[in-house]
User: What shape does this take?
Amino acid sequence: MTTSFNNFMARYGAKLIDNDYPVIPIQPGTKKPGRFYRGIWSDYPAWTRHCERPTTLQEIEVWSQWPDAAIGMACGSIVGIDIDVLDGQLAHQLDRLARERLGDTPLLRIGKAPKRMLIYRAEQPFSGMTRSPLEVLGRGRQFVAFAVHPDTGKPYEWPEESPLEVVFESLPIITVESARAWLEEACALLPSELRPATLAGSLAGHVRGRGVNTLLRGRAVIVHAALVRMGTRSRLLAEANSVMPSTCI
Assistant: This one.
């Protein structure tokens, strides 16, 4: 039987399992996990179980029979650094920052350029983090690896190396702390119009509504520390404690 060109599962699924990647089926023409049941593609509600265990060859054999089955990867042991930015210069800058902070991964996936995703291996699985348009795809999330992109009508690209060539264990290892640090540093590089509204709002509210209180609290902490170093734990320390906000203690 001839395999359809767009049946990525039949073409690549077994090789990806050999390379230890957590493969899941993706509905053709979408970015959603799916299953083909009674002649119809539908959502695959139980796909998150693949975040916790390896995909089996038996599953690949079944999925390969589904028409035009695309391939995704269930995050957990694998982590995607998603740079959803259409400014080419900024996308490359954020890419370089990720490689400097997290390691020079060989796996770069392009769907709708210059948007991009860098692929890493988690030291221990951790939940994802989002600062739109940036995201760390962790446990409970997934990304498309081999499929036709629904917007471009062209296959996703791996312009450097691909998971077909790179075994999973050779990917750079990252931690939840290093991923969070990259995300915060990368978010600071975004122009104001791209920064998350919640982050911008919280910063503005802090300045407007709490600036004076924060300043006083900070000065109280400084005074308290100085008195402790001087060893004056009697009357002066008691007076400092009495005026310092309780949230600082």
In short: Residues 200-216, 218-230, 236-249 have pLDDT under 50 and may be disordered. Residues 197-230 form the longest helix (34 residues). Residues 224 and 240 are 6 Å apart (CA to CA). The helical segments are 8-18, 57-63, 88-102, 176-189, 197-230, 235-243.
